[in-house]
Specification:
35% helix, 5 helices, 122 residues, alpha/beta
């Protein structure tokens, strides 16, 4: 069964790279992209993805702030959130887990590694 994924990332190239990596790994999925927290919140008013992949470094509201907001909402807190960032370090990892992230991953240099990093959710 195809997984319904919401990718939240302000980098306009990221969705295509992310989805190509999943396609190349023959993973059944439906991915929706939101470029920022506002778009994500509007999308989440009408749908409930299987999981969310959330970038940390975003303008206006960063990933940790959005994660905290998602986990404060009763109708959204059950959705697993995977935080990912090129700058993921021990401190950010601990902060994200404390805020409710299900997993934290460092953005790989080779996006073909994404399926193996998300294997628990796929």
């Amino acid at each position: 069964m195809a997984k319904n994924i919401l990718l939240i990332d302000d980098d306009m190239d990221e969705p295509e790279i992310f989805m190509n990596a999943l396609r190349d790994a023959n993973i059944a999925f439906h991915c929706t992209w939101a470029a920022d927290a506002d778009q994500a919140l509007v999308h989440l008013e009408s749908t409930s993805p299987d999981f969310i992949v959330l970038d940390f470094n975003m303008p206006k509201m960063n990933g940790i702030e959005l994660l905290r907001l998602l986990k404060s909402k009763t109708h959204l807190r059950h959705i697993p959130v995977v935080m990912y960032s090129a700058t993921m370090d021990g401190h950010l990892n601990a902060e994200a887990l404390k805020a409710g992230a299900a997993e934290c991953i460092r953005k790989p240099y080779d996006m073909r590694d994404i399926p193996s990093l998300l294997k628990a959710f796929l």
